Amino acid sequence: MKSLSPALAILLLAAPAAGQKANSPRAEVMMTRDIPYAAPGLPLRVLDVYAPAGAKRLPVVFWIHGGGWQTGDKCEVNHKPQAFVNRGFVFVSTNYRLLPDVEMGTLVRDVAKAVGWAHRHIAEYGGNPRRLLIMGHSAGAQLAALLCTDDRYLKAEGVSLADVRGCVPVDGDTYDVPLMIETAAARRKALGEPDPEFGHYQKFGSDPVKHRDFSAVNHVAKGKELPPFLLLHVADHPDTTAQALRLRDVLRGSGLPAESFAAPGTDHVRLDADLGLPDDAATRALFEFVRKALSK
C-alpha cells in the first residue's frame, strides 16, 4: 500500500458505531483525504480513500454523494466506509462541482474523472482497479446509473465497463428525467402549486434532448455489456419507487441483470444514513448483491 503522510493518514480506532453489534469485527481503516483527481486542482475535484491496513488487490466501492446536484460532500458517508472495510473492500468517496456553478454535463464528467483516477491509482492504496462497484445516493444515484449505462463518460477516462462489477443507485428519482419532470408537473398542477424556479427541468439543461441524454434508461440496449444493478429505494416513496422499477424493467427487458429492493420503514435520508448497519435490511440486500456480483 502507498505510504501515507501524517497530514493525510488517520487511523480510525473509534468505538463501534451506534447500532453495530459489539462483537462485529472492526478493521483498522487508513483514510487519505482530499486527493486531487484532475488537473487543474480545484477544491471540489478531490476524493477520499478508506482502506484496510495492509490492503492488497481488494475490490473497490466508489461512492457518489447526493444533495440535489447542488449540495452535499464526500465526507457524508456515515457507516459505509467502516462497513465495507470490515468486509475487505477499499472505499472511495468523491466530491464534484455543483449546480449552478457548472452545468450538468460538467458535473457528470467530474465524477467520471474521479472514477478514472481510481482506476489508475487505486492499486497504490490496496485496491483492484478491475473490481469496481459504483454506488451513489439520490443525485449520486442518478450519476452512478448514468455512468454505468452511458459508457461514453468512462471511456473518455480510459475505464471500461467490463471493470465495473456492479452498480447500486440508492433512492434516485431521475433515471428517466422526462418521466420525473412530467410526474412532478402533474402533481403541482393537481395541487395548484407553482413551478419551482430551479427544478429538474432547469437542472438538466432546459432542453428535452438533454433530459433524455441524462437518463440512464435511454442508454440501455440489448447486447450492451453493462454491470448488474441493484436499485435500492424507499418502499413507500412513490417517485423513487417508480423510477427504480422503471430502470430495473428496462434493464431486464434488454436481457441485463437487475434487482430492486424496497427498503421498509425508512425514508430518503435514513436509507442512506443506515447503510452499513448490521441490522439494516437494505444493508443485507446490498452485501448479498455485492457477494454475487464479485463471485462471477
Beta content comes to 15-25%
What CATH calls the topology is Rossmann fold
Rounded mean pLDDT is 92
Order of helices and strands: EEEEHEHEHHEHHHEHEHH
Radius of gyration: 18 Å
Name the poorly predicted regions: 1-23
* End-to-end distance: 26 Å
Helix segment tally = 10
Largest sheet: 9 strands, mixed
Which architecture does the CATH hierarchy give at level 2?
3-Layer(aba) Sandwich
User: By CATH's scheme, which homologous superfamily applies?
Assistant: Alpha/Beta hydrolase fold, catalytic domain
Total domain units: 1
3D structure, described in words:
The protein is an alpha/beta fold. The protein has one domain (9-294): Rossmann fold (3-Layer(aba) Sandwich), CATH 3.40.50. The protein has 10 helices and 9 strands. It has a 9-stranded mixed beta sheet with strand order 1-2-3-5-4-6-7-8-9, sandwiched between helices. Helix 1 links the parallel strand 4 and strand 5 (90-94). The longest helix has 18 residues, at 104-121. The chain is globular, with a radius of gyration of 18 Å. Residues 1-23 have low confidence and may be disordered.
